[in-house]
Amino acid sequence: MTGAITNRSETGGDGSGRVNEHTISTDEPTGGNEIDNKEMQKESKVSKLWGKLGLDLGTVLMMMKAGIPPTIALAMYQADAVATTYSTLGYLVAIISILGFCIMPRAKFIQTMALNVMGTCIGAAVGMLMVWSGVQARLQTSSIGGPPQRYNSSQSAVCATWLFFQIWLVNSIKAKFPQLAFPAILYCIFVNVAATYGPEFQTTAQAEVFIQRLIESFLTGFALATGVSLFILPLTCRKVVTKEITGYVTALRGALQAHNKYFESLETTDMFDKVSPSESKDKKKKEELKSPEVVTLKKLMATITALHGKLHGDLPFAKREIAYGKLTPDDFESIFKHLREIMMPLMGLGSLMDLFERLAEIHQFDTDNQDAHGTEANSSRNKAVNDWNDIMKLTHEPFATIIEAMDGGLEHVLLRLQFVKPAKKQKAGTSDTEAKGDIIQPGDKGFAAYLETQADAFYQSKATTLRQWIESKGGKMDGTMFHEPNGSSPAELDLAPIKTRQRNHRQLYMVLYIFFLLHSISRAILDFVRFADEHDQAIAKNKFIHPGKRRFVKWVASVFRSQDSNENDETTSASLESNNTVVHLGDAFKTRKDPEHSPPENAWEKFGNLIRATSRFLRSPESAFGFRCACATMSIAITAFLHDTQQFFLEQRLVWAMIMVAISMTPTAGQSVFTFMLRIIGTIVAMVVALLIWYIPAENTAGSIVLVWVFVSLGFYIPLKRIDLVIVGLISVVTATLIVGYELEVRKIGEALATSNGQPYYKIYILGPYRLATVVGGLAVAFFWTFFPYPITEHSALRQKLGGALYLSANFYSIMHETVMARIRGDEGNLADPTSPGYKLAKVQNKVLAKQMLTLQGLRTHSTMVGWEFPLGGKFPKKEYDAIIQYVANITNYTALLGYASSSFTHPSLNQENDPSSAQWFHDFQKIVTSANITSHEITSLLALLSSSITNGQPLPPYLVAPQSYQISRRLEEVDREILSLAHVAEPGYAALAVIQISTRCINMDLAKLLKAVKGLVGELDFSFHIVSTQVDSETTSTDTLVSTPSHRNKQD
């Protein structure tokens, strides 16, 4: 067979509605069915495996590119001039070229390489000072005229002191600034080598020659990585961001289609049917029981969230690049803003499943409790399901039409910006022009006007749908109901029972919620389409693009500031564990007002504060991590500074164990058993591969070099596809290159010169196990110092990050509160003016939201890994932590939706003079809603309190309760009963109010659950008194404090 044959449904194997080229013919004879089925199953498994690997042409080319620098280093070492220059450090050039990480996109690579060179040069200067001071100590303590001694205790002590101090300082900086991870690792490698060989030098000239050869080896490795990165298959950050934008838009299109299928499923299915936690503990079974539309939709929304966070991190680098192209840095920023404007309402629409679950919870539609409530609950549930089936049937056509138009709008954007190639045109004579007619296709000139027409038609269809909904409830309407300024609700609906009115009210708000968000998405896509038309790449001209002075200054300044980082960022991945994300929460999170010191008032007091700042740094978590690294390094290095073990250290090459400590220790989370085992397995695999590289070509030099390229290329699959496991990949590749490179070095320069540094020569089958033992020993030492003297466990790291997420939620809600109130008061100002309150609020709001999304993504990843933690004591309450993470995510989503909906209060359409009734209603609504508390500072206070409690592990204060839901609609009706009349239901502000009402209700529901969950974790201070009966084995707890009111106090006295 010529192609992959798979079993297919009606839509084809890729789920796109197209049947693949190779299909099974039903006319084949049955005799070969068994053979065909076996071949089909085999090829199906191969295709699935290939799909899981994710090996496309771009990935394979990048893997091949990664193997080139060490291959060049080993190949050029075979030249006599090169071998003479680098002598016994030849293999180090290959290793440094690997750590140069040439597969980074250009802007990231240039930033990292500049820092690498700077760090290495500083390391060389300090290293020279270190070995020079060691030589001076030797000269001062050696007897004049006596025979030279190989070991000198003073020289060793000086080098050891320098080594400890540098490792502590550099790793403290690495913990503070994750973007300096690679420079810090390379600095540590340099200082480790210099410090352990330093006690061998007897003269300053020897030290100078060694440091010079060492820095030449490092810079040569950097030069090889730089040349390969910039000239062989160059990859720019602009190209990376362009691919991410394309994937983002494609995911948005997929989410729209998934919503359409979900809406269609609601026409016939029970939307309240869900899997309760007690029904199944098996996650796979739960997924099977869920609706396929729901599963697909949730996966796509998670993909969009992840892409948004990745794009947010990569965009600054794309804007800093010097390039020759069409899209400017401001264009990329505008594209990202348009994507965010589409994502916000789409995320709200994706919460529809959550809203139905909440409705089921409010009405007690849970399947577990139906028997307890009897037939009344069943009939109520059936009535609600039938009502929603009817509603979704009414909205089928407008929803499907606008979703199709929006999908075309996103396709139009991709075509106009040339992110995808247009479909191949049919040959002349094959297309039916008459059948096409006047239909405007994506990519055509008038598509923006077409999309605007569709968006307006959808907005107008809302009144028709609402009219049909009111009539289905028994209400009688005339043709002018939605247009009268003082209209009132149909009397039939007002006279209905209270429960019926409440149910109708919730249905109405849910329908308005969907209409509002779909219309908002359509307007956001329309703005994106207009932007794409204005920046049509087909007519744009290429130009020289540079970041500009202001952006360049910000770039340089950002290098030395605390930054957000995650495992998907190549510049910071070397300092992160496999499950870690670092988010800088701002100075307010860490800054504490000192209750023991007033603010300084004079120069002396300010100087005293500087002295105290030194103490704060020394007791900081960053300093503690640096101290751990220094202790771990010295645990191995001490053998190099003692008389009896110095020779053993050099002969067994224990410096590589120290280097493994520098590479593998990470500042932000404990090394889990999982990653520790992966690193050991990777090292064992590297040793076996090194033996294969050497013996497969029969110890031929050229053959071994080619196989090194093959293995390094294969090894870089891990950093490319699993950047979170980059340390595992680097250790494996470095170990194999180290073993083979040393053998090639000895073959080139001879055994005599190779052993002149005190290291005996071993055959590769002996050297391999020695290297393996050295690397594993280094990893084991790093693992030990992670847990000693006290462990930095995954559990404590997860708790700290969760406290940070709660803090960001409080910050985000506070910003949103001010934004909503500013919009209601009308003093938001011009959003295009950088000095206006609205502009400043929007800027910080987007910044905090991006941080929160990054934090939540890291928390979910982190939570999946805590099971690998070595268990000591009771079980970790993973279920409770996962629930809290979900509550925080819900609160963040609904807070963002709350702010998005409030933007309708400043929309120009609400102040149109051509519709006086609409304008008058909104002015009345604005006056009333100003006095109502749509948002509350109580929520901010509660979230901040929960954050502090989780972060510090402190119990909550007693009798703490969540803020009550404000019931905005009820408050408005108390002031003006007709303000929320159904006659005004078609007003834009009415739909926005429905979204705000739903969002605030959901926030309050999740806050109550969040408070209960946090209280279960950290406990609650208990000041109540207990009366224990001696006759009954029970305990009665008072709900009041011992002394609660003056009258109680008198009685107690």
Automatic annotation (TrEMBL):
This is ER transporter 6TM N-terminal domain-containing protein. Residues 789-1020 form the DUF2421 domain. InterPro entries: ArAE_2_N, BRE4-related_DUF2421, Memb_transporter_dom. It comes from Massariosphaeria phaeospora. Residues 48-138, 150-468 form the Putative ER transporter 6TM N-terminal domain. The chain crosses the membrane at residues 53-77, 83-103, 115-135, 155-173, 180-198, 210-233, 508-526, 625-642, 654-670, 676-695, 702-720, 726-744, 764-788. The keyword Nuclease does not apply. Residues 647-785 form the Integral membrane bound transporter domain. Its main location: membrane.
